[in-house]
Write a structure and sequence with these properties.
Radius of gyration: 23 Å
Shape: globular
Order of helices and strands: HEEEEEEEEEEEEEEEH
Number of helices: 2
Number of strands: 15
Distance between the termini: 16 Å
Structural class: alpha+beta
Largest sheet: 7 strands, antiparallel
Number of domains: 1
Length: 216
Amino acid sequence: MKFLIAALAILSLALAIPVVADINNGNINGTTDAWTINFGFVVSDSFKSDGITLTGFMIGVWLFPGDTLTSLDWSISSAEFGGTIFGSGTASGARITDTYISSNQYGYNIDRVTITGMNVPEVAGTTYWLNLANASVASGDPAYWDENSGPASASESALGTIPSEAYTINACGGCGCFAGGKPAPDCGDTPEPNSILLFGSGTLGLLTMLRRKLTL
């Protein structure tokens, strides 16, 4: 009985814990090659969903020294460059973060760019495509998506099939997940601490009553 009470108490707390999963196509390489994601070019990489809501992603980029990526167009689609569009937008302001990592042998800065604030529900086991374009830097210089030849499929709008790029897809499901300032669509509002306590105390009270009846 004590084990059952403890298990139910843990379960009541678990209701407020989000499920977080990252889909990783490998680390940033920064030394082999990179593909233009502005000046009209689009680069598209595939990923297989775990079936929870996509909330953001991280990519590796090559930039000229002194440049910082300030905005980026993205879309999630059923095919490279198109098909059914499940979500799209322009990341800018607080929803894009550019972090310098190193410089490479070609004189480019290698940066990690993080995009947040997305809210794209997905179906488990389905292959989607992350499409990137219209990257913007204040200088007007080109921006490039780092190639790392990971396991994903990839295409470039002018050339077709290319080696895949460095990315990590961030996804979250269940209560406690927020994207774009709102709860993810597959969960309700995050339970308040008082609600969790009331649920737990109610469960314990019910079990105590049942135990008393069994010992009469």
